[in-house]
Amino acid sequence: MTAALLFWLAGSGLIGLAVYGLIVNPHPLCKLLALNLLGSGVFLLFGVIARRGAAAGLGGDPVPQALVITGIVVAFSATAIAVGLLLRLHGEAGVASIDEEDDAP
Amino acid sequence: METGFDLALTLLLLGVGGWSILARNMMTAVIIFIAYGLLLSLAWVRIFAIDVSLTEAAIGSGATGMLMVIAAHKVGADARRVVHPSRAIHVLAGIVAALVAVGIAALAFVLPGEPQSLAGPVMERLGDSGLGNPVAGVLFVYRAFDTLLEKVVLLLALIGVWSLARDEDWGGIPGFRLFRHHNSVLTLLARSLPPIGFVFAIYMTWAGADVPGGAFQGGTVLAAMWILVMVAGVRKVPRVSSPLLRLAIVAGPVVFLAIGFFGFVMPGEFLAYPQGYAKPLIVVMEIALTLSIGVILGLLIAGPPKGEDAA
């Protein structure tokens, strides 16, 4: 079970890194990337919980695993829309930024 | 030995994840993020979640990475123009991030001793469905409603992306950059890889009933092949108003819903399968879903319609 503990630590470290990136990087694409990293860290924690539920000859609890698969797909859908919005903003304003001072092209 | 591997993987994940957050150049950050996704899928293998590992490699790393590469290419140049926050904000963000990380890490040592598991109940009744892969069983039998809604979310995402097109471009061709160099390696790959890719996608979908794999992973391989063909200019990118394209997009959810409603007639409940027919029905659903997922993923990456001349 050392793998489970190590990946739990990895997951929490990744969440921390992503929170930092989410706050300090002002570019929306950086924020989107940080958000995806944050999501993957949370999924990894969930995977460790699934591993803790290993029983009935399986290496992990299949229910959380199936939920993570659904989660990855939904996260991708959200990212696709965010990228679409970002590119439209870039196309209209010439610059993709959420900083008010940056509004004037 | 195994602990050494896990430790190295943990350090690599943290290092590569941190690098993609801190990288100055947007394109560098995105490409490191793709590498990070592949490393993460190794971690998933190590905690016995092969299905999740395949999904992470295909969607989390591959498809998301492709979206990000396109976005970074189009907007990356103005990343440097953005005003960066002050040192105080950096320090504050560092403290907040460290607190969050340490807090969550500490939970590893205070989680309740006896882990709860649904593995037993799942395995007990899995035989009734005729499936051999417990994750596929959960996705298509126990949590079929979730899986249905997940496909609908994909469909809604595509509608969302399409609705970002400008009015005059509506009905046109998705506008991503094409590389029409007829003697390039890309063209060669776009002509030689798809047959192998299609067979592999069909295998993954078919095998998903009994071993790790399934409609999602197969559909992503299908999408990757289609994108390769479109980007190399071997086949034209279809117009978003094409009826055939629309049919392929809704095939999966429609078959899923039809079988779901048929459940009212036969066993008497929505999304329930008639005794003994669960596996054939699930396989039919998976085939339709693979096609729809492949087409939807390809179109999500291709982006909103951009008028007549996509190049």
Give a description of the structure:
The complex is a heterodimer of chains A (105) and B (311). Chain A is mainly α and 105 residues long. Chain A is built from three helices and no strands. The longest helix of chain A has 32 residues. The mean pLDDT of chain A is 84. Chain B has 311 residues and is an all-alpha fold. Chain B folds into two domains: 85 residues; 182 residues, no CATH class. In chain B, helix 10 packs antiparallel against helix 11. The radius of gyration of chain B is 22 Å and the shape is globular. The mean pLDDT of chain B is 83. At the A-B interface, helix 1, helix 2 and helix 3 of A face helix 1, helix 2, helix 3, helix 4 and helix 5 of B.
List keywords for this structure.
heterodimer; A: 105 residues; mainly alpha; Helix Hairpins; B: 311 residues; 2 domains; 11 helices; 70% helix; 0% strand; globular
What's the helix and strand layout?
The complex is a heterodimer of chains A (105) and B (311).
Chain A: H1 2-24, H2 28-52, H3 62-93
Chain B: H1 2-22, H2 26-46, H3 50-75, H4 87-110, H5 119-129, H6 134-142, H7 144-162, H8 185-207, H9 215-231, H10 243-265, H11 278-302
